[in-house]
């Protein structure tokens, strides 16, 4: 990411920040406009098919509307997707500029909360409040959050801070608080300048390859809720299919065809949802994988970052240096113990 120069004059900095905010808001509005146009075009396409389907022939107007709405869908939908990428890039630039306006060694670690490296302590500040934490009481971890079994992922730096600094009345033996900052070269330089060690997996110097990891074992866990949703979609799609066939035979072929097509699509979606309605624990040569239906809830941990693995009843506790995860055991512990006995002994 290319850094935006920070003007020396305070007024110029405010104007630049306001300009970045306006650009981000404009892109945000444009995204919703494109999304709304895509939805309206889809609705218009369905209406055109239904209205002109009741007639013997649509003529030129039918094909003109059909082409217009189809073209709008094909143009607006991809543009709306690209706008999500642009919004992410604009947000990162805006956030980085706001950090550097506070200081070259300031970084966001939460909503409007900045962590500033100063002297021998880290200063957490938001508004007028400040919390000072000596460096000797903090550990810094480099973490790559992976949602799939591959080298690629999202890099971040986690600050492990004792709970007593962030809570007025912390519980006895309370675990440390973890705050997260986006990984960036400026943060790495700051840690190096202050002589602070960065623990954990280090980011690669070159772009990681798209090589897929080799799976050794997989343990599937059915998801009753997901399967129930899939069954309802299958039933609804089948009802539309039958209704569409009846409409096509006894009333209007075009309308019936549209209803039947929607029914088939809904059945395909329901069938896919039913088959995907399962969670999975998988072991790879390179690490441990927990797969959910939702992509955001998936986790892949490399064996190098795992400290210990412990079986706790029907659950599996996978501990890393910066924190622990809890997954359904699903019969995987014996395989992990056989393949990685050292990790299970550490538990």
Structure description:
This protein is of the alpha+beta class. The chain has eight helices and 15 strands. The protein has helices at residues 10-53, 59-102, 163-166, 185-193, 224-250, 253-276, 333-339, 341-345; strands spanning 106-110, 113-118, 121-126, 129-134, 139-145, 154-161, 177-182, 198-200, 215-222, 278-284, 287-291, 299-302, 306-312, 315-320, 323-328. A four-stranded antiparallel sheet has the order 1-2-3-4, covered by helices on one side. Strand 11 (287-291) and strand 12 form a beta hairpin. The model has no long low-confidence stretch (mean pLDDT 87).
List keywords for this structure.
347 residues, 15 strands, 8 helices, 4-stranded antiparallel beta sheet, 26% strand, alpha+beta
Query: How many distinct helices?
Result: 8
Termini distance? Answer: 41 Å
- C-alpha geometry: flat
The mean pLDDT is: 87
Structural class: alpha+beta
Name the poorly predicted regions. none
Radius of gyration: 27 Å
Helical proportion, percent range: 40-55%
Assembly type of the chains comes to single chain
Strand content: 25-35%
Question: Outline of this structure?
Answer:
By secondary structure, this protein is α+β, with helices and mostly antiparallel strands. The protein has helices at 10-53, 59-102, 163-166, 185-193, 224-250, 253-276, 333-339, 341-345, and strands spanning 106-110, 113-118, 121-126, 129-134, 139-145, 154-161, 177-182, 198-200, 215-222, 278-284, 287-291, 299-302, 306-312, 315-320, 323-328. The chain contains eight helices and 15 strands.
């Amino acid at each position: 990411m290319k850094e935006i120069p920070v003007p020396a004059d305070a007024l110029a900095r405010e104007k630049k920040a306001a300009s970045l905010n306006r650009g981000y808001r404009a892109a945000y509005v444009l995204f919703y406009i494109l999304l709304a146009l895509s939805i309206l075009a889809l609705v218009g396409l369905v209406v055109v098919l239904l209205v002109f389907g009741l007639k013997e022939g649509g003529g030129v107007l039918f094909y003109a509307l059909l082409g217009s709405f189809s073209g709008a869908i094909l143009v607006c939908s991809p543009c709306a997707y690209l706008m999500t990428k642009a919004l992410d890039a604009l947000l990162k630039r805006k956030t980085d500029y706001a950090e550097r306006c506070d200081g070259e060694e300031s970084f966001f670690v939460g909503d409007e909360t900045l962590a500033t490296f100063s002297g021998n302590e880290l200063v957490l500040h938001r508004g007028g409040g400040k919390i000072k934490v000596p460096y000797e009481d903090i550990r810094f971890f480099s973490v790559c959050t992976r949602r799939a079994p591959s080298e690629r992922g999202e890099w971040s730096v986690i600050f492990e801070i004792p709970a007593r600094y962030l809570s007025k009345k912390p519980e006895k033996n309370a675990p440390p608080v973890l705050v997260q900052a986006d990984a960036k070269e400026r943060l790495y330089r700051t840690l190096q300048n202050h002589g602070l060690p960065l623990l954990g997996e280090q980011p690669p110097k070159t772009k990681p390859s798209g090589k897929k990891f080799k799976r050794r074992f997989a343990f599937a866990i059915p998801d009753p809720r997901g399967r129930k949703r899939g069954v309802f979609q299958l039933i609804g799609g089948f009802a539309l299919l039958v209704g569409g066939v009846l409409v096509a035979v006894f009333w209007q072929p075009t309308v019936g065809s549209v209803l039947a097509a929607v029914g088939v699509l809904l059945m395909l979606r329901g069938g896919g949802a039913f088959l995907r309605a399962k969670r999975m624990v998988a072991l790879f040569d390179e690490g441990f994988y927990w797969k959910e239906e939702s992509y955001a809830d998936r986790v892949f941990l490399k064996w190098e970052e795992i400290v210990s693995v412990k079986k706790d009843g029907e659950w599996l506790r996978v501990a890393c240096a910066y924190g622990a995860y809890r997954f359904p055991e699903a019969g995987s512990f014996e395989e992990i113990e056989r393949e990685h006995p050292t990790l299970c002994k550490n538990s």
